[in-house]
Write a structure and sequence with these properties.
The protein is of the alpha/beta class. It has one domain: Acetylglutamate kinase-like (Carbamate kinase, 3-Layer(aba) Sandwich). It is 41% helix and 22% strand. It has nine helices and 14 strands. The radius of gyration is 19 Å and the shape is globular.
Length: 284
């Protein structure tokens, strides 16, 4: 039993400098993918966020909801369509996206955080003009590009002890509602909040040198290395927009952006509070 006690003690001691590093700092977590559809992983994510909040780390949870949107579109007999990895969003679809993200998904996450002892509040990009946007591309319909983030709404929630849970709907100057990519929104919010760390939960281990071998994970990538890694075919497919979001966040002042494996229970704690981490870190 003594060995077990030693292991437990060492885990806590290892976490100490990271707890000091992030104390009273903002960490933005983008939540989506497999971790959002698996009940065991869902609860692990909520436990991680509540624990970080309790020990003095201010977590902002930014979420997507692709599977739930797909399910609702299927129910109303509407086919999901994607262009270059982004959801084509016509007028009917943007209403459904708003209903699902700002309604069901957002409130389910708030409720789950509360059930684990957290104090959470649901927000969407329309609240207090949190996310201002304009049309990204006419071929994508009502998909928005962020023009401004009014982080005061989020800061007020944090200052009052809440965990803000943000769904990524934006508003144009004319009142038009836009669907915003959650990775992009999380990166921009992290920069506007002066967060030292952005965490993107994904369905893979991180950036792999060989996409078919999870043992080839690249632990650290400098922003200047990204064009070369793209040219080499190491950053490809769905990893391109995620890496680009991380690069944008770092260029805007975020110290590190982490792409981590959301399939691993408590991967957020492993990433933030241990020496090894749980994925790939992008730094300046």
């Amino acid at each position: 039993m003594q060995i077990d006690y030693d292991v437990r003690a060492n885990v806590m001691i290892e976490a100490l400098p990271y707890l000091q590093k992030y104390n009273n700092k903002v960490v933005v977590v983008k939540y989506g993918g497999n971790a959002m559809t698996n009940d065991k992983l869902k609860h692990a994510v909520m436990e991680d966020i509540v624990m970080l909040s309790i020990v003095g780390i201010k977590v902002v949870l930014v979420h997507g909801g692709g599977p739930e949107i797909n399910d609702m579109l299927k129910r109303v007999g509407k086919e999901s369509k994607f262009v270059n990895g982004l959801r084509y969003t016509d007028e009917e679809t943007v209403d459904i996206v708003q209903m699902v993200l700002a309604g069901k998904v957002n409130k389910d996450l708030v409720s789950m955080l509360e059930s684990h002892g957290g104090t959470a509040i649901g927000l969407c990009g329309l609240d207090g003009n949190l996310i201002e946007a304009e049309q990204l591309d006419p071929d994508l319909g009502y998909v928005g590009e962020i023009t401004n983030v009014n982080s005061t709404v989020i800061q007020n929630a944090l200052d009052n002890g809440y965990i803000p849970v943000v769904s990524t709907i934006g508003r144009g100057k004319d009142g038009t509602v836009y669907n915003i990519n959650a990775d992009t929104a999380a990166a921009r919010i992290a920069a506007e909040m002066g967060a030292p760390s952005l965490i993107l939960l994904t369905d893979i281990k991180g950036l792999l040198e060989d996409k078919d071998d999870e043992n080839t994970i690249i632990r650290t990538v400098g922003v200047s290395e990204v064009p070369f890694l793209k040219k080499q075919g190491i950053i490809t497919g769905g990893m391109i927009p995620k890496i680009d979001c991380c690069v944008e966040a770092v260029r805007r002042g975020v110290k590190q952006a982490n792409i981590i494996d959301g399939r691993i229970p408590h991967s957020i704690l492993i990433e933030l509070l241990t020496d090894l981490g749980a994925g790939t870190m992008i730094i300046a």
